[in-house]
Amino acid sequence: MENKTIKEYIYLDEQELNSILAQFENGIPQVIQSLIQESKGSSNSDKQIKSKNANIGVSAGFHGDISETSSDEAGSSNSNVHMTQEAITTVYNDYAIDIVTKELDSSKLLKTTTKQEEGAFVELCSKFTIIDPVSMGQKDDLASLMDLAKSVSDNNKPNESDEGSIDIFAKVNTVFNTLFPKTTLIKTNNALTIADSDMFRINKTQLKFLSFSKNRKITILGRVQTKLEEKDFDFPENTNISEILPRLGLIALQSLDLLKTNDAIIRPIAIYFE
Question: Could you give the residue ranges of the DSSP H alpha helices within 63-138?
Fold first, then answer.
């Protein structure tokens, strides 16, 4: 039997995915055809289940109008419809990612390194660090967590460095939430991916614990948004007011060793493990 690899998708930009599909001549039809082929295998089993359920009803002596349903049954039916719609959407999107990847690759548009021009499609596989500014916590939250950590440690005496650490973390949190609202950052080799926090398929707590992953590599399908040069981290005298916050963001990321010259900023389409 062939070994099967199951991908774990944790992020998807559906709008961008469908936009790319629409620009390939046979993009969306390919996804639909894949769905049809996949559903053929389950259609016969569905018919058998329905037939079996009908026979059970007759043999058990049930009579009357089978079209009548209770409110509980109606609620269950609506729930099933909702679940089915979600399942179809998920399956469609997952097939779409594979087809987009294949189409880009066959068109020689998909690269596997960050040494590309701005706008290029890339599929990067690397060890990673996740930075979620919201999860850093506010100053009061950090102080409470520090107290908890000290209460379970051997050295539980407060010291001045704790206050300093809390202040630093609080300031970093404020800066990051101001410069990168509703954003999750993923640091990989020679790149920083800027992801929309609302597009993740996993919740904030699950995302936090991904940071402890030691052996897995993350795969990011996306586009190179910016290639950074040394001058991008400076403030020239003629800096346009519209560039001030972006430049402050770059400087903040550089100070935390999250960005350096020649790194790429990536806009993700899909993020997954395999």
Answer: 71-106
